[in-house]
Design brief:
By secondary structure, this protein is an all-alpha fold. The chain has one domain. It has a two-stranded antiparallel ribbon with strand order 1-2. α1 runs antiparallel to α2 and α6 packs parallel to α14. The two termini are 30 Å apart.
Length: 439
């Protein structure tokens, strides 16, 4: 997501009376539960009615801000955030859908590891959304005879989230930090070791699982994987449209010019791409349609939750970088990670008595370790659930359209986030942000 650099919630200094009542957090909880439970209970109903659920629950939060005197500014800001989010995600989805990577032969486990590592690296150049949309289809094709749920989950872990921790282009929270005054190369300079350690752990676990998966495959598939692989790229004219989108990210004024350029690039890409390339990618608009409706509900219902968090965050007593790491991380997994990053960064500024818009230089000089904890946590923990980061849901939707089994909302958390991702993040917390840190 790309958002305005202005604070998205009331200032910390405002009275607690400006805080939304706690009950207004319930629509957001209901939205999460609907996403998690209804596809399991009644999949047909969910597929037919998910947009009605998003509208109904979102309208409760919108109604609160319209009629409670909380102000139209909050709604306007969130609407701008949502339009920016959808323009970026949608344009990258369309442009990537016009690039076809043809793979002949099946991928060996070591090739899969190198592919994920490549995705993690380029996610810092074209963003986690761009890398995810560009690579998820060839990832599915190159593993088509033995692809399982863990292939999709680790793609989300590595390419859609953890990989993009090194530059402001990589992940939306870091871009917001850049707009606030964090130097462009600051995160690369300070976070690369944590990035490398986290990737090393996740890639090692993936390699072990993929080798087991390979050994269980029929002999003809294993023989196919030992054959030489060939790659063919089509639709590379879309790289020009991709470059336009990425350059437009840095446009601030006038309002909505950035979004208009993104949409124009997507339209140009769609109509200039030969139909056979879209057909080869099984391209359709259903995944982005689902993301647009669900995140409309999420953006609307999370407004009270985020406002409540920012106003009451000082009451959490956050002092150490490890506390900021876990606080930012856990909420980034269930809230959108970009505004969560802003909320905790604003809290850290408030604790130091610094102005959130002008005090970045002084903050970096004295509290850079806190910023690093917030930055790493917001990016890494975005992989904890499907809603932690925008690309997660899109990867899931594309995989499902390709008839690949993917875990449900709770299945993703119980089978993968808790036993694999959480211990990895625990290690990162101990190594880099605790009193026992080694780095």
């Amino acid at each position: 997501m790309i958002a305005s650099c202005q604070p998205f919630a009331p200032l910390l200094a405002e009275a607690a009376a400006d805080s939304p009542p706690f009950v207004m957090i319930l629509p957001f909880v209901a939205m999460l539960l609907a996403i998690a439970i209804l596809p399991l209970v009644n999949k047909h109903h969910w597929e037919a009615c998910y947009h009605y659920w998003a509208l109904a629950l979102g309208s409760i939060s919108v109604g609160y801000y319209l009629f409670s005197g909380a102000g139209l500014g909050r709604l306007g800001h969130t609407a701008h955030e949502y339009v920016s989010f959808l323009a970026l995600v949608g344009s990258l989805f369309v442009v990537a859908g016009g690039i076809h990577i043809k793979v002949k032969g099946e991928a060996k486990p070591i090739v899969n590891v190198l592919f994920l590592l490549f995705g993690a690296i380029i996610s810092n150049i074209i963003g986690t959304t761009g890398a995810s949309m560009l690579l998820i289809r060839p990832w599915i094709r190159m593993n088509k005879y033995r692809i399982t749920a863990f292939h999709i989950v680790f793609f989300i872990f590595i390419v859609s989230n953890v990989g993009g921790c090194l530059t402001p282009i990589g992940d939306p929270p870091l871009f917001l930090g850049f707009l606030k005054g964090v130097p462009f190369w600051w995160t690369l300079q300070h976070a690369w070791v944590a990035w490398a350690v986290a990737l090393g752990i996740l890639l090692t676990i993936f390699f072990i699982l993929d080798v087991r998966n390979f050994l269980r495959a029929p002999k003809e598939i294993r023989d196919m994987e030992t054959a030489e692989e060939t790659w063919h790229f089509s639709g590379l004219r879309n790289l020009a449209f991709l470059a336009i989108i990425l350059c437009s990210v840095f446009i601030k004024d006038p309002p909505f010019l950035r979004e208009a350029i993104m949409v124009a690039a997507a339209v140009g890409s769609y109509f200039s791409t030969p139909r056979h390339l879209h057909q080869a990618n099984n391209f359709n608009f259903e995944p982005i349609k689902e993301v647009a409706w669900l995140f409309l509900g999420i953006f609307a219902t999370m407004m009270p939750a985020l406002d409540y968090l920012q106003i009451h965050a000082p009451e959490l007593g956050l002092k150490t970088e490890l506390q900021y790491y876990w606080g930012t991380g856990l909420l980034s997994g269930v809230l959108d990670n970009a505004p969560t990053y802003l909320a905790f960064l604003a809290t850290a500024f408030g604790m130091q008595g610094l102005d959130f818009d002008t005090g970045m230089t002084q903050f970096l000089a004295t509290q850079g370790h806190i910023l690093l904890a917030i930055s790493v946590a917001s990016v890494f923990f975005g992989a904890a659930t499907y809603i932690g980061n925008g690309p997660n849901f899109m990867v899931k939707a594309i995989a499902e359209r390709a008839k690949v089994a993917t875990p449900g909302f709770f299945g993703y958390i119980v089978c993968y986030s808790l036993p694999i991702l959480l211990p990895t993040l625990f290690v990162i917390g101990i190594l880099f942000f605790s009193r026992w840190r080694l780095f």
